[in-house]
Amino acid sequence: MKKLSYLISAIIAVGIIVLIEPYVNEAKEKSKYSFEVESKDGKISLDSYKSKALAIYFGYTFCPDVCPTSLSSLAHALNSFDKDKVEKNFEGLFISVDPDRDKLEDLASYAKYFHPTFKGATSNKENIDDIVKRYGTYYKKVELENSSMGYSVAHTSYIYFFDKDGNFIKKVDHFSNPEQLKEVLKSIL
């Protein structure tokens, strides 16, 4: 009788685990990609984008090549879709990894320069470091001798896409075929 009781308990436990595992995995995924940063209009979090698809890019406004190219590629892909559909269903977020130089007003202007749906934001170094680590990306301040800039920022170049429910969909690197950006956008718009 005890063996039957243990067997029934084990079956129930396995059943519960199987039933709740997808919810636990979804919560872990949301936690991995959650963030809170500051824009000129106030705090922004992943939850701020409920009902809109989102693309996040990490960079800095003094970046001479990779950031402008990546943001231009994303804007170009967005411009291949109906303008009203994009404005109602999408936002881009440029998160600066250089909070010492990139001020909120400058970030807003910089992001909007590439596309009207783009916003700029940043945070303190500790928070940026935490977000970057969880996203699996990288940046590092590089001192520049004899330069009026003082330093540059070496960084990876990925665009992170989220659907309208805030679920992570895909990470696309800077060197991907531009058609891949369109395909991902088509799936989330």
UniProtKB/TrEMBL annotation:
Keyword Membrane: yes
InterPro entries assigned to the protein according to its UniProt record, in alphabetical order: SCO1/SenC (IPR003782), Thioredoxin-like_sf (IPR036249), Thioredoxin_domain (IPR013766)
Residues in coiled coil: none
Assigned keywords, A-Z: Copper, Membrane, Transmembrane, Transmembrane helix
Domain of life: Bacteria
Residue ranges of domain Thioredoxin in the record: 26-189
Membrane-spanning parts: 6-24
PANTHER family named among the record's database cross-references: ELECTRON TRANSPORT PROTIN SCO1/SENC FAMILY MEMBER, LINALOOL DEHYDRATASE_ISOMERASE DOMAIN-CONTAINING PROTEIN
Family label: Belongs to the SCO1/2 family.
The protein's name in its UniProt record: SCO family protein
Native species: Arcobacter roscoffensis
